[in-house]
Amino acid sequence: MSLSVVGIGTAVPEFEIDQADAAEQASQLCYENVEQHRHVKALYRRAGVQKRRSVLLQSATNGRPAQQTFYVNSSQQTHGPTTAERMLAYERHAGPLANEAASRAITHANVSPFEITHLVTVSCSGFSAPGLDIEILEALGLSTGVSRTHLGFMGCHGALNGLRVAKAFTEADPDACVLLCAVELCTLHLHYGSQPDQIVANALFADGAAALVARRNSTRDSGWQLLDQASAVIPGSRELMSWRVGDNGFQMTLSSELPQLIGHTLEPWLKAWLGQHGLSIAQIASWAIHPGGPRILSSCGEALKLGPDKLADSQAILAEHGNMSSPTILFVLDRLQGREAPRPCVALAFGPGITIEAALFT
Description:
The protein is α+β, with helices and mostly antiparallel strands. It has helices at residues 19-30, 34-45, 83-109, 132-140, 158-172, 196-204, 258-275, 294-304, 308-321, 328-338; strands spanning 3-11, 16-18, 51-53, 118-123, 147-152, 177-185, 207-216, 224-233, 241-246, 249-254, 286-289, 345-351, 355-361. The chain has 10 helices and 13 strands.
């Protein structure tokens, strides 16, 4: 039994910054000598990102790029704001961004907020209670009896996990109408220091929110149908990507071995899974691959023998928005649906574990 995606909505913060300006600000903020500045700027150039948005940015003035005041020079603030300070910023900004994306998804789906029976929220960049679910419920006028489920700290594949939960709800209840909303404020976790994985994370991540409305497939729905999902944890890979709560924000570890390992594992696993549905990799018409970074995309392309056109949508989202963690895959799906991309389509995302999450749309 399939689930139908009947509406998608996305939202980003008001102000954006070009990658070159972001690199300049980061190098002045966290690094002290010319060699470090040069290294930072080189890593930012190679990130595949042209511009990003952040809830911390303020309007550009007098010809200057957008600025922020949350982080100060490392001589004044050795490790950046405390986790408590970052969580206060999360609590202030996450809700409004999530509400904007969710409202657009409901409008796109042409349903009433009161028709929503289940609310699934996804976020790994902050915590608060009452949290996103209550704020969305109140802001959008959902029923106070809506069933609420939150998925936290799962990383970049979190929205696909949320989609699995939504599918389970629609399979259990033929009248279920599920609102799934993912929001991340990754720029609250900029880290000072010269470790390459920290610099790469600073260069890639951005803020954004995305939501979708889904219900059990019926004759009145013309949206994309979620046929099946699959998950795999790559053995012996748990230390290659991590996301841990520290005293000064959440700390990410990104191993340089990650793209190669994903590329090596992906093809045989995906081939076996698609074979269960009578499909081959070559028969997949469109791909929504989470743009964790340019090397992740290129490794997937090489492993699956995909032409540049199959990666173009993911690369465009990375260039235009950066890696927004869990909402990003929904941005890619929204882009594919907007241009009426052919199906079947496979969505792929990766997270700590190392975990591969896949979804098959028809």
